[in-house]
Amino acid sequence: MDALRSSPSAVARVLDARQAHFNRRNRLNYFAIVLSMIAMFFGMFWLLWILWETVSQGVAGLSIAMLTENTPPPNEPIGVGGLGNTILGSAMMVALATFIGAPIGILSGIYLAEYDPRGKIAGIVRFVNDLLLSAPSIIIGLFVYEIMVVTLKEFSGWAGAVALSLIVIPIVIRTTENMLALIPSSLREAAYALGTPKWKVITRITLTAARAGVLTGILLAIARIAGETAPLLFTALNNQFWKTGLSGPTPNLPVTILQFAMSPYENWQQIAWCGVFLITFAVLALNILARFLTRGVQASN
To answer: Do residues 245 and 157 lie in contact, with contact meaning Cβ atoms separated by under 8 Å?
Structure first.
């Protein structure tokens, strides 16, 4: 330090080296920001293009008949028929899949967060859950096809609901465990100090405090399975008639969109665009609701 103080040129060299280092880091920072902005605008361009095509092509065919009438035979005039039977079939399968998968996911998440957070069984469950989260949905469809469709020798909405429930379970498990882990331990300790049993601490305190986050996970799972096509191709197949039950091939919106979009018939293609519009904005609405609930959880914490 004394040498630097006695030599102004040495101080200048040190300051110049620091300034050069700062300028180099600044240039790298600007370069990274520019690349990030380019990547963002590139992704936004395609996203907005897809949304524009979905809206422009889908809104034109929307009508009350589109929501209430049966899917038409091929080569009918545009405006004849609708997606009523497929909407009903998809709603029934999604509701049943949520009814099956959500309780299993919530109970499993409670076990991982409250009973055995660092145990060997918990580690195995988390590993299997990660595999299910990353597994392609077509593999789940093939699995359910082998255990249900082949065994019962019949495609059915029941098999489709089971396949969709296997997609719901890992999402709800991960969300429930994470939400419960955010609850302060002081709440649990205060309840235990008052002699509250563990099951009541979980149901009345921790799960109540995390209910918005758990509900968010369920909504995200519903948004995920609402547009799944691959599992239903191997399980529910499709049907162009009204069905109020889940036995036998069941009409559903994703498979109908796939079949109609690939057909050469103009009326089917128009109906497929309407289906894409409906399913896109239904998923968008669920994601917005989930984001709203998540914001409420963050504000309360």
So the answer is: yes
User: Which pTM value belongs to this model?
Assistant: 0.84
User: b vs e for 246-256, b when ≥16 Cβ sit within 10 Å of the residue's Cβ?
Assistant: beebbbbbbbb
- Number of C-alpha atoms within 13 angstroms, CB side, residue 91? 11
Which residue from 203, 243, 207 is spatially nearest to 92, judged by alpha carbons?
243
pLDDT single digits (tens) 15-26 = 777 878 788 888
Write out pLDDT tens, residues 57-100. 888 888 888 888 999 888 888 778 889 999 999 999 999 999 99
**How many Å apart are CA 116 and CA 122, to the nearest integer?**
6
The CATH number given to 67-300 is 1.10.3720.10
Domain residue ranges in the chain: 2-59, 67-300
Calculate the dihedral angle through the C-alpha atoms of 154, 156, 158, 161, rounding to the nearest 10 degrees.
130
Angle at 111 (CA atoms; ends 106, 112), nearest 5 degrees: 100
Closest CA to 162 of 106, 223, 104: 104
Tokens of 157: 């909405």
